[in-house]
């Protein structure tokens, strides 16, 4: 009986672990962001800066040079990113803190 | 949170080169860098209630059939959590009440037909994920004449932490 319980526990872990799988993305710091935007202005780099907040919030405040692809409507607004799916993208929102 | 979830969604759609500016607007502004304002929200000091106050309000309203003597709702919950409005959160939990409840996106507030569903009588209590968007939601609604709105402090997170009643939303 005890063996069966352990087997069930192991089986439930195996089934549930993928649900906790987290995608990992490279993080950009504030100074890096500032430098990247300066370099973009100078034509040295190219990337899309994407504000992921609702449009009401994007209109109220955003980092200059951003486009808006709200998480709430990614499917409808994703076309704003163009067709090149390898083009560098930096996404941001209000911030973690 | 929004940036991470958008990044995940874009990756699922085949975008391969995504990075996250983790500090976001808060760090950008704190560092003194320029902010672009396209359509500013009016200044407005909204009202807030904590989870316990909302629980008391719900209990009292439910004993009165959720309506005042004039027939107007005593309060309405306006839950604008994105995953809930997208219906992308399977079996999401919402605050349990028999009183009126509206579910929509924040950007739906800009649609006159959707906004028209928000009552102008009785208290409207905003529920979002963490309460972070409530000040902006209240400022927007105030710009359309709503001064009967309050935010649930720390949002649904506070309600769940207090272990108050929830029900599944399908």
TrEMBL record, chain A:
SUPFAM superfamilies for the chain: Rhodanese/Cell cycle control phosphatase
Gene3D superfamilies: Rhodanese-like domain (3.40.250.10)
Taxonomy, superkingdom: Bacteria
Phylogenetic lineage: Bacteria, Pseudomonadati, Thermodesulfobacteriota, Desulfobacteria, Desulfobacterales
Naturally occurring in which organism (per UniProt): Desulfatibacillum alkenivorans DSM 16219
The protein, known as: Rhodanese domain-containing protein
Residue span(s) of domain Rhodanese: 58-95
From TrEMBL, chain B:
Alphabetical list of PROSITE patterns matching this protein: RHODANESE_3
Residues covered by the Rhodanese domain: 1-37, 106-168
Top-level taxon of the source organism: Bacteria
Cited InterPro entries: Rhodanese-like_dom, Rhodanese-like_dom_sf
The protein, known as: Rhodanese domain-containing protein
Annotated source species: Desulfatibacillum alkenivorans DSM 16219
